[in-house]
Design brief:
This protein has 85 residues and is mainly α. It has helices at residues 7-23, 28-45, 51-62, 65-79. It comes from Alkalibacillus flavidus. InterPro entries: DUF3243, Uncharacterised_YmfJ, YmfJ/YflH_sf.
Length: 85
């Protein structure tokens, strides 16, 4: 099973990657920009594997650029306490 198949596993995966980036000294602005790029890639190149991903993709697709940055920043906040730390 892929981490993309289960939203909780996906959040844990993202949380682990976020903590790795923070541990390596990546600043918050760079993390937020990377989250935006990941969101753009997922919305345009990856089929949703569950209802949550489909909802996020649909929100992304109707959002303005500024709103997409907000969604990306909120996803970073959402996974801040996820993962194995």
């Amino acid at each position: 099973m892929s981490v993309m198949d289960n939203f909780e596993q996906w959040k844990d995966f993202l949380g682990d990657r976020l903590h790795q980036a923070q541990d390596q000294g990546v600043d918050q602005q760079a993390i937020n920009q990377l989250a935006y790029q990941v969101g753009e890639h997922l919305a345009t190149q990856v089929d949703a594997k569950n209802d949550e991903e489909a909802m996020l993709r649909d929100l992304w697709n109707v959002a303005s650029d500024e709103e997409r940055h907000t969604i990306a920043n909120m996803m970073v906040k959402l996974v801040q306490d996820e993962g194995t730390h």
